[in-house]
Amino acid sequence: MAESIGNSGTGMKLHTKILLALLVGATAGILVNTQLGKDDATVGFVNTYIAGPIGQIFLRMLFMVVMPLVFSSIALGVAGLGDLRKVGQVGGRAIGYFLGTTFIAAAFGLLAVSVVRPGDAVPDAVKTELMATYAGDAAAKIEAGQQGGFGINTFVNIVTRNPVKSAADFDMLGVIFFGLMFGAALTQMRQERAEPMIKVLEAINDAVTVIVGMAMKLAPYGVAGLIFGVTSKFGFALLKPLGAFVLVVLGALLFHMFVNVSLILKFVIGLSPKVFFSRVRGTLITAFSTSSSSATLPAALKTAEEGLGIPNRIAGFVLPLGSTMCMNGTAIFEGITVIFLCQAFGVDLSLGNMIVVVVMSVITAVGAAGVPGGSIPLLVGIIAMMGVPGEAIAIVLGVDRILDMTRTVVNVSGDLSATAFVAKSEGLWDASRVPAEQGA
Ligand code: ASP
């Protein structure tokens, strides 16, 4: 199984292949976009019948295993931790880390956007044009935001009424909750009764891991298809009026990952950032190309265990939670976008309002689904709260995909660092357990 994150059988490492595919797909997409235009019929044909389907098949293979994997890993993680007090302690540490780093991320994003002030530079004509062009997309997001609004029911609904329906609806928190209960129940049973179930769950986990290995063999093709779709359809023309905004978001995301998270890795977790990023880079490439923390979860689990040497019962418990609750990159993006739109619409925010934006960015980042664009409907709510029309989200939709891909990388690096943090603070792991890099 090491093959899926190590050598791919032809001598070249799989993540090197994926990276190459990313470059080839992106270059081809940019070329056709700039030479033929983003609405060219041939490009449309290639996207509909070749690149799109290949990318989708890869994504679907990953999504296919997410629910069984979340259930079996959480249940096994809880059963492995033994008593419920321990589960509470590990969960508490994980959630503390999620909230702490997400708060740092959101505050940092706000600082960056307040210093650079990219919103002042957007001409009114561009604003009006963008709002007209993306009005339809914006309306769909606003509706999604209203349906999935954040309130007391968000918490009540975590207690799923029907775990099978939750799995079918891709309701991660519902499945996580059922997995928690199931694992907890196993710890309360007589050992000889619980043992066969634990064996079954372990077998499910192993089988799913094999499927992930198969999916990852498709990764170079899938990734090339996905990135070609993004770049060939991307509105490069938008990079000029929105360039400053895009640069602030990307700069803040990269700074958070390589400076803030690296400092935490080094001084809190005691792991060299260089070692960390060298072991997790394949998973970060998957995050970038899928734009989805959930689709990246299977690869992240393998990396945590095989690449970082973190015990299964910690990774299996913390990573599924993190993939839906720990979104540092999303919080940065949300904070910056809200303030950017306020600047563009001439809305002055008091310090109190700024604090509300930080807090709301943290809450909605925790609540957002780990799927492409999962945070956008919730973001609309914060914009409206600050007195900017929700429709204004249209202004950033045209450039969102590239920001989404990058923030997902930051989200996943946060999940993996959280796992290392919890394993370390539980005394179950330290940097000396990180295996030597395979094939290096
Ligand atoms: N795509 C992000 C993720 O899956 C969520 C978002 O910010 O839209 O982590």
How would you explain this protein's 3D organization?
There is one protein chain. By secondary structure, the protein is an all-alpha fold. It has a single domain (14-433), classed as Proton glutamate symport protein. Helices cover 78% and strands 0% of the residues. It has helices at residues 14-36, 41-81, 84-116, 124-133, 135-147, 152-156, 163-168, 172-188, 191-233, 243-269, 273-290, 293-307, 312-325, 328-344, 351-367, 376-385, 394-425. Bound molecules: aspartic acid (ASP).
Low-confidence stretches: 1-8
How much beta, percentage-wise?
Answer: under 5%
- Taken in chain order, the helices and strands follow as HHHHHHHHHHHHHHHHH
Shape summary: globular
Ions and ligands: aspartic acid
Number of strands: 0
How would you sum up the major sheet? Answer: none
Provide the gyration radius in Å.
Answer: 21 Å
Content-based structural category: mainly alpha
Distance between the termini: 17 Å
The CATH architecture classification is Orthogonal Bundle
Give me the number of helical elements.
Answer: 17
What integer is the average pLDDT?
90
Oligomer: single chain
List the helices and strands and how they pair.
Layout: H1 14-36, H2 41-81, H3 84-116, H4 124-133, H5 135-147, H6 152-156, H7 163-168, H8 172-188, H9 191-233, H10 243-269, H11 273-290, H12 293-307, H13 312-325, H14 328-344, H15 351-367, H16 376-385, H17 394-425
The chain binds aspartic acid.
Aspartic acid (ASP) binds at residues 291-293, 327, 330, 368, 370-375, 404, 407-408, 411.
